[in-house]
Amino acid sequence: MTPRQREVANHVVRGLTSKQIARYMAISHQTVAVHRRSIFRAFAVHSVAELAIRLRSETTTLLE
Questions:
Q1: At 17, which helix (H) or strand (E)?
Q2: Which of 3, 8, 11, 43 has the fewest CB atoms lying closer than 10 Å?
Q3: Tens digit of pLDDT per residue, the chain (64 long)?
Q4: Contact 32, 26 (CB under 8 A)
Q5: pTM of the model as a whole
Q6: In three state form, how does the secondary structure of 32-61 look?
């Protein structure tokens, strides 16, 4: 995952909408949507809840 995708993923997991993320990151909401699709595809998830679980387990694995 790219640093920008990581940033988007963190905002998604925090519950921000694509438009909120776009405003915060000063990018278009379409760009956020592209990042979200890439992130969901890379982690093979279909929901924000699944993404949060996968990110948490990945972070835990990296820290061990």
A1: none
A2: 3
A3: 899 999 999 999 999 999 999 999 999 999 999 999 999 999 999 999 999 998 888 765 544 4
A4: no
A5: 0.83
A6: HHHHHHHHHHHHCCCCHHHHHHHHHHHHHH
